[in-house]
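Minutes, project check-in
Item: structure for the 612-residue chain
Input as provided by the requester:
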Amino acid sequence: MKGWTGNILRINLSSKTFKRESYSEDFARKWIGGRGFAVKILWDELEAGVDPLGPDNKLVVALGPMAGIPAPNSGKTVVAAKSPLTGTYGDGNIGSHITIQLRKAGYDVIIIEGKSGTPEYVFIEDDKVSFLPAKGLWGKGTFETQKALEMKYGKTAGILSIGQGGENKVLYSVIRSMEGRAGGRPGMGAVMGSKNLKAIVVKGTKEIPMEDPKAMKALGVADLRKVGEMDKKSKWSVQGTNAVLAWCNEMAALPVRNMRLTSHPDAWKLDGQRTSEARVATYGCPHCSMRCGIAVLDKEGHESELDYENVGMLGPNLEIFDIKQMASLNYLCDDFGTDTISTGAVLAFYADAIDHGAADGDFKFGDAERAKELIRMAALRNGAVGDILADGSMRMARKFGKGSEAYAMHCKGLELSAYNCKYVPGQALAFGVGPMGAHHKEAWIITYELKETERGSYGRDKAQKVVDIQRIRTGIFESLPLCRFPWVELGWDLKNYPAYFNAATGSRWTLDDFYKTADRIWALMKAFYAREFPNLDRTADYPPMVYFDPANADKEGIIKGKHLELDKYDQLLDHFYDIRGWDKRGVPTRKTMETLGLRQEADELQRITRVE
């Protein structure tokens, strides 16, 4: 087949063995790659109820037919496993040299099984795999680990690693690469740590398979230049993703004080202009001509690479408006390898629970120095406080009780990204229905909703828009896989992506083919959740209940007195289920699964839970 290598590298850490396996062209075209490959492999190979931190869980590193090919923002890799944070399928994408090197080594997928008896890392060089002791790396942060491995294998080597957060199985620890890149919010770093796997290093020398390499390269390189020119003209990279902070503050959608508030007069101190003015360096992923990683110096003098999500969650959400202090929190998370979004949410929830008498402690909003201490304690699981912070908001709320479950800001266990949905129904729906939990990259509808529609509406059009964006993001960006920013930020035409895919694979796909594949992937992701939680009901697709509380409505500003309404949200949820072909519980019906080519998966799900 063209466009895919057709090869999977299966590595068993327990037995120190590896083997090369092949997959069919039918499999490739049914699942595309990236997320599609990952969720299908994990569905097939994991038993329901498997311990996410046990040796029977599997870590999947998955690429697709556009991975590593010179084309706009094609340097992405998907990392996936059963999530220790949510108990269901979890993944993340990460910009890394491993995207290029793994394809050159001749593989589209790595499946890592078992558990090493001692800390180690794996080195893959074309057809060879070495299991090497990580004695000098274990216990080190991600920056030192990356540097040490680059010194040994070169700066272009593909490297995925974890910090102390992953080693200590912090449930929201991530996998890191190239110092500033991170992926796997639902605890993919903890899965690596549970396997005593410190890092994966890859170097390859083979050609990446394509239908017409010369034509693909000519098209891709030309479009990389065009995207770069569009970026320069729009000046998007001047502020990068953090340009959205001022807009969120203006539109009453900023996370402030555990999302109790939606704006703050000091938010400007952390906005895109301020971060750009403080810039000391700019970083990006491979094959990117619109680099968004703006690095500033933190309070301790480290380079700290910022984007909107970490600024929003570690700044306003903690009521910390000193840019250097906020950057210090971000640096610590990056070095320990803990997710910045979940860390900000966990600390904000802790302060909120203390304020409301649900928890004991001395942490207050605005206390940056204590926040640094708590990040260290969580990453190292130091003491009872560090241990409970390391387990995430959902488990914290279950332990605290006293009504705190209502304001633990998560869906299905995954903390909300930095968009406050107190009165943004469509984005609240997008967070609520995500099979992995609350994640902005799954359906970032908020700009559409606040600019082009009536904000307070709960109509079918909003549910349709959420589905439309899910189809685009999963079918194209998470499965080819590619970065979405040229499309999202610069208006790069979606029709370019089938053109790349067809040039690489010799196909004749249209956007509709990607959307149908996306529906198949989404159905299997939700089926995965239903298999793990067979007694689920529609409340699994609700956002945090505090959003429905009139007492939590803003006391001033443009949404004064406004809040989400539960009966109307349920109507919006019904629209979403109807469009998706899911039942009233939020489970794909048998008819829907069979239409999507998932008859066997429907049969398996039927054995565990009712499928209508």
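Outcome recorded: Residues 237-408 form a domain with the Aldehyde Ferredoxin Oxidoreductase Protein, subunit A; domain 2 fold (CATH 1.10.569.10).
No further action items on this chain.
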